[in-house]
Amino acid sequence: MPLDVILLVLFGALLHATWNAIVKAGSDKSLDAALISAGGAVSALPFLPFLPLPQASAWPFIGASAILQFAYFQLVAAAYRAGDIGLVYPLMRGCAPLLIAATSGFILKENLSGGALAGTMTISAGVLTLALEARHGSSRAVMLSLANACVIASYTYVDGIGARISGNAVSYTLWMSLLPPVLLFSWAASQRGAVAVARHVRHNWWRGLIGGAGSIASYGLALWAMTKAPVATVAALRETAILFALVISITVFKEKASIWRYVAGVVIAIGGLVLKLA
């Protein structure tokens, strides 16, 4: 994998960890996640007139991605209600690249080199190591996390293919970002009432704008990288976001880090090095 691709994916991972920290710090995880999605759409709008439309063949992928993104945010909220973030986040983010690595040869006809496969597995192992420090959890949390890992793998495939056939990965990313917040807020209003949703938006809109811009930039960088390198290796490298999340958890949230967090950080860093050398 070229160095410039690695550096941009790592920057995207930092943005991913940052917007997740914004959600974590909020008072209503479900509505804050919807705000992040809406912020991404708002951030995309000014750039759309200057970009070519995606190829017609990419639009079905954009529609499928919107539905999968809606399912992703719903499962994130449900999993965090059922279990500790120290268990849920590593399972979701660690299992997804494993699923992609195991199936990309069949679905995309991408055969990973031995080094790329080793780096992918090492990063995933490091992320999953973080689950060992979880103190609270349940079988429901585990099942929801694993289900969301499948959703993450699915939308990674959909968007990886869609970005490649769209003719412009940036344009694909920005158009793809418009529909999920419509679905999320429509669902939230139907479940909690439009007044409650509007009240939360009025007081927390800035969270969505800042986090949304980071979210869309993070995912756009990943999709661009998938046009330059195998989807499985990009998906695995993106999970280095957990390293940045570790730093944020200690410096911002003042969380105590167990030995497992440091072990995981070292393993993930080794995995990133293996991918660079592969």
Write up this protein.
With 278 residues, the protein is an all-alpha fold. The protein has one domain (3-277). The protein has twelve helices and no strands. It has helices spanning 3-25, 29-44, 59-82, 85-107, 114-129, 139-166, 169-176, 179-192, 194-226, 231-238, 241-251, 259-277. α3 packs antiparallel against α6 (139-166) and α5 packs antiparallel against α12 (259-277). It is globular. 51% of the residues are buried. One of its GO terms (biological process) is lipopolysaccharide biosynthetic process. Pfam families: EamA (PF00892). This is EamA domain-containing protein. GO terms for molecular function: transmembrane transporter activity. Its main location: membrane.
Q: What's the structural blueprint in terms of helices and strands?
A:
Elements: H1 3-25, H2 29-44, H3 59-82, H4 85-107, H5 114-129, H6 139-166, H7 169-176, H8 179-192, H9 194-226, H10 231-238, H11 241-251, H12 259-277
What are the main properties of this structure?
about 280 residues, mainly alpha
Strand content: under 5%
- Major sheet description: none
Helix content: over 70%
| Straight-line N-to-C gap | 7 Å
* Averaged pLDDT: 83
**What is the number of beta strands?**
0
- SSE topology string: HHHHHHHHHHHH
Give the low-confidence spans.
Answer: none
Evaluate the radius of gyration. Answer: 18 Å
Q: Given the C-alpha coordinates, what overall shape results? A: globular
Class based on secondary structure composition and strand pairing? mainly alpha
**What is the helix tally?**
12
What is the number of domains?
A: 1
